[in-house]
Structures are given as C-alpha cells and as structure tokens.
C-alpha cells in the first residue's frame, strides 16, 4: 500500500548517524544522500526518506504517530533498540519485550529519534 515514508529532521548529520546505526543493527545499508540533501534508506522492500522541512520551519515528531519497522527476531529488535539509544535516541513506552494483544504475541521496542519521531521495532512471535 505505501511506497515510502518521509520524516523531517533539524540536524541531518546527527540523524544520519542515528539511522545508520539502526539500519546496521538489522543488516541494512547506510543511508545515501540525494541531490536534494535528503537521506534515503532502502531495506527489506521499504523506503524511508528524511529531509529538512521544505517550508523552512522546524521539524517536529508526529503527536500520535509511530513508524514501525519489521524485525526478523526479538534479538534483532533488541539490537535495533540498543543501537538507537546508543546513538541519541530515547527509549519510550514500556521497556522492550514481549506483549500479547489483539494482534497476537509480539516483541516490541519503542524509541524516539533525536527529532522526536516515534519508532517501533516489531517482531511477531509465532504460536
């Protein structure tokens, strides 16, 4: 359904270091910077773009918004979370771990990136 997700940043160098660490924790490549100065991450069929807001105003995190990343294992989700915290992210929500809800059993880990965007690592645990 989605072709890509784009979020804003106020400090592209800081943001690149943060997201490069997250993607490295899941076997993904470092971001590339295009001719317009946007960071682009392609991994597992998804595309994340990060840019300075085109209106010149400050980037802010979406209130109520979350960007979810699919993980291949709980171990990978934990490594993703640890890489984020070590590179300027903030752990939010409950601590990383297993949860059971209407969608079944899963391992979840939540972060806010340095610009306040809320991110989630999700691994579905098979019954």
From TrEMBL:
Pfam families: Glyoxalase (PF00903)
Database matches in CDD domains: VOC_like
Positions of the VOC domain: 1-124
Protein name: VOC domain-containing protein
Protein's organism: Methylobacterium cerastii
